[in-house]
Write a structure and sequence with these properties.
Blueprint: H1 10-20, H2 27-49, H3 51-54, E1 62-67, E2 72-77, H4 84-91, H5 99-105, H6 110-119, E3 131-139, E4 146-151, E5 157-162, E6 169-176, H7 186-196, E7 204-214, E8 221-230, H8 247-258, E9 266-272, E10 278-284, E11 301-305, E12 308-311, E13 326-331, H9 340-344, H10 347-370, H11 372-392, H12 397-403, E14 406-408, E15 411-415, H13 417-423, E16 431-435, H14 439-443, H15 448-454, E17 458-461, H16 466-473, E18 475-476, E19 479-483, H17 504-516, E20 523-526, E21 535-538, H18 546-554, E22 565-568, H19 573-579, H20 584-601, H21 609-619
Parallel strand pairs: 1-7, 11-13, 16-17, 16-19, 20-22
Antiparallel strand pairs: 1-2, 2-6, 3-4, 3-6, 4-5, 7-8, 9-10, 10-13, 11-12, 14-15, 14-17, 18-19, 21-22
Helix pairs in contact: 10-11, 10-12, 11-12, 11-16, 20-21
Bound molecules: adenosine-5'-diphosphate (ADP).
């Protein structure tokens, strides 16, 4: 029997899983039961839509057999099973593209790490935390030859033909290591199932040896007799009525469903009746899923039709900016044999989707009002991704703007646009914002001082996406949103007077500087609104902004060179000095220095850092 080695990283992964999860070994059972349940879901669908299986008398079930004497545990399901090929790809390697990344993300904290394991789809391997060896036997529905997969978890695996009752399904026989013999005892196993898998929608039967007695007095003898007991309620949680469910039920279901050890931040269970009949159960995880910003993220919502699982791979069930939501949509009105194509333009689903968005956004808003602490966690995790909605879901712009939060010059905390608007004085007409690389850099932008002096609050935006989405928002309840670092947006300071000198000497200086810096700036001008800093950079309406340009570069895109406008503070002593300067060369050095320092203040690198680095010493 030739053994196949595990794919490169599996070996390392196994060791890590075993060690990092050491204190939480029992979750292996949850993972295996959840795999069995998925396989039953798939089989059930086949019996409903595929002619080949329509006549089958299918009663889905999971059987767990305990052999205390031999220290083994067997988990059997009559689901779809796996072909030889599937055994190879599903169990013999980690097909997941995120494996390397997964390894990097492991922290050594077993609670956090066990979360990751679910997210990265390496659930099956967790069995090697407790197993000396594992024998998987499986028959794929529709095939006649079963196959076995056997491994000790370290030296590779082997696949062979085998017998399997002639019925499709999978059985996993685990030989426990000595320190984990406890997992072959009835109470321990029952307890784990109740804790993690009570709401698996299929019955789970526990098989064990019951101790019985025979005879009386001296003749009384003890003997073992096989017994069987169903240990879960086997009812899909979301189909039960809200009134009979406790918070604990919802939370336990979430752990199994979302492979998340942590409790959800909150959840929302809705049963709609009337025109459309459907149930939704949505969870917001405490922490944003690891793959939130990966193009190939895993969809978090599963679609069921009349309690039959249809798909967990439809990213259109909710809008993309709600991809962190976990949960279930169960419709009474869709046909069972919906294809992917039908799903995409299905009116029923579109209606459920739009009601769900409304519901979720409403729940977020409610959270903001009722639980400040939780809402803060929510904002920290999901503010950024919700902003994507401003870009592609205009219909919900107002709702989104009521839950998205911003940093601002008002203080350190998150603020809402509503709060901002409440604080606006009568003479303030616009909502001001500035974008930049990170909060600290934005907070120290030289333009802010002038707004502060007027008593105007400025929103400080430092998510990359702000550059795209905030201009699209345009206005909030009749108040236009204006970027303060746009050259056109300085008319506010028109009447302040004195800031922009127009005598010949000053004009001449601008001309000279502009000539010297021609290839780097669009314009040099005196600022109406600089208070302390000698210079600042601003963008012009029709050009690409500096921040946008940096983003495009990061994405590897070619962009035309962006030339900002250099604004000078005519009241600053440096300008006085420049006015007295005769040498063109010296003037250029100072010009470059002002320009590059302004770049740094934006958190951006000067165009030629090596030249800038030498300038101060040269000028000293
Ligand atoms: P995940 O369940 O997150 O995909 P696992 O490592 O737990 O990751 O399982 C890998 C794959 O093996 C599953 O996606 C499934 O295709 C297959 N598999 C595991 N257990 C079973 C089972 N009992 N019946 C059928 N297929 C299974």
């Amino acid at each position: 029997m030739a053994k196949k080695p595990f794919k490169a990283e599996v070996d390392r992964l196994l060791k890590l899983i075993i060690h990092s999860l050491y204190s939480n070994t029992e979750i292996f059972l949850r993972e295996l039961i959840s795999n069995a349940s998925d396989a039953l879901d798939k089989m059930k669908l086949l019996t409903l839509i595929e002619d080949q299986f329509k006549n089958e008398d299918f009663s889905p079930r999971i059987d767990i057999e305990i052999d205390e004497e031999n220290h083994t545990l067997t988990i059997t399901d009559n689901g779809v099973g796996m072909s030889e090929n599937e055994l190879n790809t599903n169990l013999g390697q980690i097909a997941h593209s995120g494996t390397a990344e997964f390894l990097e993300k492991l922290t050594g904290d077993s609670k956090k790490d066990s979360n990751l394991i679910g997210q990265f789809g390496v659930g099956f391997y967790s069995v090697f935390m407790v197993a000396k060896s594992v024998l998987v036997r499986s028959l794929r529905a529709g095939e006649t030859q079963a196959h076995s997969w056997e491994s000790d978890g370290t030296t590779g695996y082997s696949i062979e033909k085998c017998d399997f009752n002639g019925k499709h399904g999978t059985s996993i026989l685990i030989h426990l290591t000595e320190e984990h013999y406890e997992f072959a005892t009835r109470w321990r196993v029952q307890n784990i199932i109740e804790r993690y898998s009570n709401h698996i929608a299929f019955p789970i039967f526990l098989h064990y040896q019951e101790t019985k007695f025979e005879g009386e007095g001296e003749n009384r003898t003890e003997f073992k007799q096989p017994a069987e007991e169903q240990v879960n309620s086997a009812q899909a949680l979301w189909t039960r009525s809200k009134s009979e469910l406790k918070e604990e039920d919802y939370i336990n279901f979430y752990h199994t469903f979302a492979h998340d050890q942590e409790d959800p931040l909150f959840y929302s269970h809705t049963k709609a009746e009337g025109n459309l009949e459907y149930t939704t159960l949505f969870y917001i995880p405490q922490k944003a899923p690891m793959d939130l910003y990966q193009a190939n993220y895993q969809a978090g919502v599963k679609l069921y039709v009349k309690r039959v699982f249809i798909t967990d791979d439809d990213k259109e069930l909710l809008p993309i900016y709600l991809r962190f939501v976990r949960g279930v949509i169960d419709s009474q009105d869709l046909p069972l044999n919906v294809s992917r194509e039908i799903l995409q333009q299905n009116r029923i689903l579109a209606n459920i989707r739009s009601a769900s968005v409304k519901k979720l956004l409403g729940e977020f808003r409610k959270l903001a009002e009722t639980d400040k602490e939780k809402f803060k966690i929510f904002v920290e995790q999901y503010n950024r991704v919700l902003k994507e909605g401003l870009y592609n879901d205009f219909a919900h712009k107002e709702d989104l703007l009521s839950v998205i939060r911003f940093k601002s010059t008002h203080g350190e905390d998150w603020v809402s646009l509503a709060e901002y608007k409440d604080r606006m004085s009568d003479e303030q007409k616009d909502i001001y914002y500035i974008t930049g690389q990170n909060e600290q850099v934005v907070r120290s932008n030289p333009l802010l001082a002038a707004y502060k002096k007027k008593g105007y609050e400025v929103l400080l935006l430092s998510d990359e996406i702000d550059e795209f989405v905030i201009p699209m928002v345009r206005e909030y309840q009749g108040k236009p949103l204006k970027a303060i670092n746009l050259s056109e947006n300085d008319s506010l300071f028109d009447d302040d007077g004195g800031a922009v000198p127009d005598d010949e000497k000053h004009k001449e200086l601008l001309e000279k500087l502009k000539k010297q810096l021609e290839d780097r700036v669009q314009e040099v001008r005196y600022s109406k609104r600089l208070e302390e800093a000698p210079a600042a950079l601003v963008n012009s309406q029709d050009g690409l902004s500096m921040q946008m340009n940096r983003m495009f570069k990061m994405m590897g895109q070619e962009t035309p060179e962006v030339k900002p406008i250099l604004e000078l503070n005519a009241k600053h002593p440096v300008i006085e000095k420049l006015l007295l300067m005769d040498s063109e060369a010296e003037l250029k050095d100072y010009g470059v220095m002002l320009l590059d320092a302004a770049y740094l203040a934006e958190g951006l690198l000067p165009k030629e850092p090596h030249i800038f680095a030498k300038l101060p010493f040269k000028l000293l």
